[in-house]
Write a structure and sequence with these properties.
Number of helices: 6
Mean pLDDT: 94
CATH class: Alpha Beta
Strand order of the largest sheet: 7-8-9-10-11-12
Largest sheet: 6 strands, mixed
Radius of gyration: 17 Å
Helix content: 25-40%
Number of domains: 1
Length: 254
């Protein structure tokens, strides 16, 4: 459950400071954003994923659906508003700098989730979060913390960046497991540190690494893996992504 941003990616030698120009050596575009990346990683590990999202009834919205379906995702769309866009610079170190354009479209419909082994809530209205609690396992990201507080349901997993201020979490939710990621430094699980995994190849593009880590962790815990085994799989998933162009090319497969 989450959002999509049609993203223009540009590979540059540096992110330009104010008043300067950067020239891209490569350029590509497609549907991205946390919801799309999580759905794609879950589909590759679980041999399929239902993705509930919202898109504008416009050219970019329909192009997003076509591309996501090519990735093996079953897309369920609410059509309203305008499809959100983003511009992402990827520098020579593979680090990404993102600018979003337009409102994040949050799903509003409340299908039954009782038949699902796991739901990952990336974005949506509080009423949708409450319905998602019908799944056996419910994961979420703290980037939608106000919604999580309003929805007030128990989460089996809360996973997000430990270095991004937009994903900070200082408690107050009913959560089974809290994981904070720190990229190459590893991260913490309920305050205990875990180690990162070296990437299996040269670093190309860091976009999608955190969301792929989170999706793999949700998958592993929901199928019954022990915490340390689940973290190991998630670390491999996060490390794999950064060796490919864009968020999908090098995602871990089962």
């Amino acid at each position: 459950m989450g959002h999509v941003e049609w993203t223009e990616f540009a590979l540059v030698d540096h992110v330009p400071p104010p008043g300067q120009i950067a020239h891209a050596t490569e350029h590509w575009s497609g549907p991205a954003g946390g919801g799309a990346v999580v759905a794609a990683q879950l589909a590759k590990l679980a041999d399929g994923c239902d993705f509930y999202t919202a898109l504008g009834h416009d050219e970019l919205g329909h192009a997003s659906v076509r591309r996501l379906e090519e990735l093996g995702i079953a897309v369920h769309v609410e059509w309203f508003g305008r499809t959100r866009r983003a511009i992402t610079f990827v520098d020579r170190q593979g680090e990404r700098t993102i600018t979003t354009i337009g409102e994040k479209l949050r799903p509003r419909e409340r299908p039954s989730f009782d038949r699902y082994d796991a739901v990952f809530f990336v974005a949506g209205e509080p009423s949708v979060l409450r319905t998602a609690r019908g799944a056996r396992f419910l994961a979420a990201t703290p980037r939608e913390l106000p919604t999580l507080r309003t929805g007030a349901v128990r989460l089996d997993l809360l996973v997000g960046s430990g270095t991004d201020p937009g994903e900070s979490y200082d408690g107050g939710l009913d959560v089974g497991l809290v994981v904070r990621t720190e990229g190459a430094a590893g991260g913490t699980v309920d305050g205990r540190r875990y180690a990162a995994v070296p990437p299996p190849g040269p670093i190309v593009d860091a976009y999608g690494a955190g969301d792929s880590f989170a999706a793999a962790l949700c998958f592993a815990l929901a199928r019954g893996d022990a915490v340390d085994a689940a973290l190991a799989l998630a670390a491999r998933a996060g490390a794999a992504v950064i060796t490919g162009i864009g968020p999908y090319a090098a995602q871990l497969t089962r």
